[in-house]
Amino acid sequence: MPGREATGLLRQARRQRSTPPMRSPAGAVRIAALVALCASAGCRNLGRVPEHENAVVRGERCLEVRDFDGAKLYFERALQASPRNVRARIGLARTALERGDPQAALAEADRTERECALAQQDRIELLIVRGRACQRLGRPVGLVWAYLHRAYEAGGAETKQRLYKELVRLSGQLPPDAPGLKEFMAAGPPGGAAPWQRIRPRRDWDPAGKSDAGIPMGKPFRITVHHSAHDAFIAGSAARSAAASAEVIRRMHAYHVQNRRWQDIGYHFIIDPRGGIWEGRPLHFQGAHAGAAHNKGNIGICVIGNYDAQGPSTAQVDSLTWLVRRLCAKYDIPSRQIFAHCELKATTCPGRFLKRIVVELRN
């Protein structure tokens, strides 16, 4: 019965295909190892990119996790399929920059502009690549500022958030008449409070909120930077919270009034270890911080800490740069009138580490 025999064999073959094969323990171990290897490979895949996957998206994901080899692989694969893919070209430029090859990043940016049709956001991303590449190549800070500031002005809220702190740091190395600098500092941080609302009002540390320092300030024409010279314990306590910083400022005020016999705290602004900026003596009163011969028209800024012993925090440097640049813009104070206390009086204030920052702000 050859027909029946053939039918039986066919049914048996079907049952074998539908029944999962038995796996040995050694086979299970091999499969587990393969799964672990795939997971450890990050963004890269052991096989080819599936047709339904977007190689550019995968490349961008690799770039986010700093898998530069994987990013380059996917961006190049995307360009094989579409040689004028703008996102892939920009991705290659960003990858080169992050890998520490700014020259290659600039070359890729040039090629992108030559060969691709660019949308507005593409041009913004290329400006950012160019600015950061020039910075890493040690090119003039004015050129770096020009690229990044153009990107900032042309970009939306997300771009502004990405670039704001970077531009504030650059502003400390620019002359006050650099294109766009005054307007940038006057505008304040994107999406935040109004510019001067970044400064905590006096009532936050002095509930009475009154000051009668007596001598009118007049128009400010100079800025002097100090440190509080507090030891590490007191400065560390001020870093814990805003309430702790307020307590340190109250103690400074008490010392100035009770021990020094001044009418108020000597400084117009205080910067705490977390970078918080606090209003001190009102600006319409002359300060008591640089010596009687130098207080007139002189805005006093005190940074809490001892900067002969250590450097200021990044947050403090950012806040000091922001505050000094805003004050210069508001009162038309030239950068040559930014001083460390020791440059006006025989003292070690504001400490050797903070003095370097002040000199950078001036020069």
SSE blueprint:
Blueprint: H1 2-18, H2 25-40, H3 55-64, H4 68-81, H5 86-98, H6 102-115, H7 120-136, H8 141-154, H9 157-171, H10 181-187, E1 199-200, E2 222-227, H11 232-238, H12 242-259, E3 269-271, E4 277-279, E5 298-303, H13 314-331, E6 338-340, H14 352-362
Parallel strand pairs: 1-4, 2-5, 2-6, 3-5
Antiparallel strand pairs: 3-4
Main sheet properties: 6 strands, mixed
Order of helices and strands: HHHHHHHHHHEEHHEEEHEH
Find the CATH topology of the largest domain: Lysozyme-like
Q: What is the structural class? A: alpha/beta
Fraction of residues in helix: 40-55%
List keywords for this structure.
363 residues; 6 strands; 6-stranded mixed beta sheet; alpha/beta; disordered N terminus; elongated; Serine Threonine Protein Phosphatase 5, Tetratricopeptide repeat; Lysozyme-like; single chain
Structure description:
By secondary structure, this protein is of the alpha/beta class. The chain folds into two domains: 55-192, Serine Threonine Protein Phosphatase 5, Tetratricopeptide repeat (Alpha Horseshoe); 196-362, Lysozyme-like, CATH 3.40.80. It has helices spanning 2-18, 25-40, 55-64, 68-81, 86-98, 102-115, 120-136, 141-154, 157-171, 181-187, 232-238, 242-259, 314-331, 352-362; strands at residues 199-200, 222-227, 269-271, 277-279, 298-303, 338-340. It has a six-stranded mixed beta sheet, with helices on one face. A hairpin with a 5-residue loop joins strand 3 (269-271) and strand 4 (277-279). Helices cover 53% and strands 6% of the residues.
